[in-house]
Specification:
about 260 residues; Immunoglobulin-like; four-stranded antiparallel beta sheet; 6 helices; rod-shaped; RskA_C
Length: about 260
């Protein structure tokens, strides 16, 4: 087979797509080494296939399909350039090229889907790791607080709700009166309405003297629902009132939710 016949046969396209049997692959490779025009045509077809694959990935547009079909329709037989006979060898080569491109498209699409799946998995793993770290941090904080509250330096008191305002409410106080430290569990209180906040007061009974210990807010929370207060005068009782955001200088007695005495050893 001459160089011109090989070029017109469509075998170069089939060779580039891996669609030739082994004996014909050897024949084409020998021709590529022997004939410069065959090598040049092989390189041209390879460039065309790469360019076409880039155009159609991940889907074939109507314009590209038209280009391929027009290219097939324009293939003529070897020899008479005006002959209208169909060159089935060249068409077969182009058909193989199209199948090859289809395979490339499928692999690109699969690779794209795989990349998206890997990216989604990485995001999910990152979120799980973050949640695990938060859970471990929270657990460590809870265990530390429990160790403190179980120590002999702290006494535990349950404070009742004000019957006139919140009869079902209650709070627990873990108190170290000597050091002026209190941990208060407010899970027995209803959720504060929007624009309101609970404020904790230490009380001296004679004469009745309230001192603000602070607000039930995030910066004082040391475990779920447990808030730490420090640097307050030695308390004989505790009260919790509902105040406007930011707290008040004196307790709003009409919004007194919790009130209870503590008798320390």
């Amino acid at each position: 087979m001459t160089a011109a016949e090989l070029i017109e046969s469509g075998k170069l396209e089939m060779y580039l797509c891996g669609a030739l049997p082994a004996e014909e692959i050897a024949e084409v490779e020998e021709a590529i080494e022997t004939y410069p025009e065959v090598k040049k045509e092989t390189e041209r077809i390879e460039e065309s296939l790469i360019e076409l694959a880039e155009k159609v990935a991940p889907t074939l547009s109507a314009m590209v399909w038209s280009y391929i079909l027009n290219s097939i329709n324009k293939v003529k037989t070897l020899g008479d350039s005006e002959s209208k006979s169909t060159n089935w060898g060249a068409i077969t080569g182009w058909a193989a090229a199209i199948l090859c491109i289809g395979g490339i498209m499928w692999m690109l699409n699969q690779n794209n889907n795989l990349n998206k799946s890997v990216e989604l998995t990485n995001i999910e793993n990152s979120e799980l790791k973050e949640n695990l770290n938060e859970a471990e941090t929270s657990l460590a904080a809870n265990e530390e607080v429990l160790e403190i509250l179980r120590s002999r330096e702290y006494q535990t008191f349950t404070l009742p709700g004000n019957q006139a305002v919140a009869p079902d409410a209650f709070a627990k106080v873990y108190l170290n009166n000597n050091d002026g430290i209190a941990y208060i569990d407010v899970k027995g209180l209803p959720e504060a309405p929007r624009g309101k906040v609970y404020q904790v007061w230490s009380l001296v009974m004679e004469p009745l003297t309230p001192s603000s210990m602070g607000l039930v807010e995030a910066q004082n929370e040391v475990a779920s629902g447990i808030y730490k207060f420090t640097d307050f005068p030695k308390a004989e009782a505790f009260g919790i009132t509902l105040e406007p955001e930011g707290g008040s200088e004196t307790p709003t007695l009409t919004q007194l939710y919790i009130l209870g005495q503590v008798k320390t050893l």
